[in-house]
Design goal:
This protein is mainly α. The chain contains 6 helices and no strands. The radius of gyration is 23 Å and the shape is elongated.
Length: 138
Amino acid sequence: MAAASKSTMSKEHKDALAQGRREGAAVRRYLEAISASRGKRGRKRTPASVERRIRAIDSELETTDVLQGLLLRQERKDLEDELKRLSTASDLKALEKEFISSAAAYGDRKGIDYSTWREAGVPPIVLQKAGVKRTRRV
């Protein structure tokens, strides 16, 4: 039985694979960020209002019973998580920039059209900056 020959990839092929991984990662990070930052119904919270509620919870914990204290601790933990999420909103601009440089090529390669990007939550202005055209597939 003949031994299997070992094929080597060309430098161009390796570079293309690396480029695809970079583009896919940029698209994934941006879509995750816009999904996480998507607003909820009701009054919008600000980092200041979240911090104010955390301070109020800390003072309530000094005088509350154990069961209410348990609920307040969970609320504080949830608010701390929300505060982290609110602080990552500033990172969205950097992720958006990466997405803009990658989206058109990634979408062309994967067959993703304008309406699918919009369904995923990408704003029209971002798609315009990325060079994704509003065309219909036939």
